[in-house]
User: What shape does this take?
Amino acid sequence: MTIEKATTGPVLYEKVNDHIALITLNRPEARNAINAAMAELIESFVAKAEGDPAIRVGVFAANGPSFCAGADLKEVAAGRGMALSRPDSGFAGFVFGKRSKPWIAAVKGSAHGGGAEIALACDMVVADERASFGLTEVRRGLFAGAGGCFRLARAFPRALAIEMVTTGIPIDAARAQHHGLVNRLVPAEAVNAEALGLAATIAANSPLSVRLSLKLTRAASDLMDAELMTLQETSVAELLAGPDVIEGATAFFEKRAPKWRS
Assistant: This one.
């Protein structure tokens, strides 16, 4: 049952239930290409979800047959390309933003250029069986400067990542799933429901446990083992000092659903 919902504008915000926020690109006539107004809205909506203590998971989706075509090239051609990035969160108000909660990309159709970079900036991807992912910037004299090059190299084998960024040729969703970018592959009409279902599964877990597990897992590709061990130790200490460890064990023995307080 939807608690809060915006029905107009190029980007929509919906609080689907107490614990899940849904941000939806709503400019299908332009294949959801990002302009300055959209970047500002996305940044504000992400901040809203991250700042709401009740929200535990965010879902990033899009209306229309395409997820996102990336930067609005009309804006770029007019010399307004820099306005598509926000100072604190980067392209689309999202790709470099600070987020402590899990975000799931619900990808229908093409996620090309900056659209692929948005998907790569999310923690998980649910995709349409006919979806495609590509960093197409080199075809337009650009390059994937919103994290696409290095995030693609982390997600895919090196040779495939290099092929994608130098040819600009997209790959289909099945190949993306094979190499680990896509978590779940479903028919187009089921993408949003599948993403929200995955979000609900996560939201049922301890919020503190999820946040700490996510923080450590995100850091795995950036830090050395010694740094990761230190981060792990501080995370364990924070977890043990919180209320959810006792509640989780108590709920298990009492054979009931836990009532998380973190």
Q: What stands out?
A: The first strand starts at residue 4 and ends at 5.
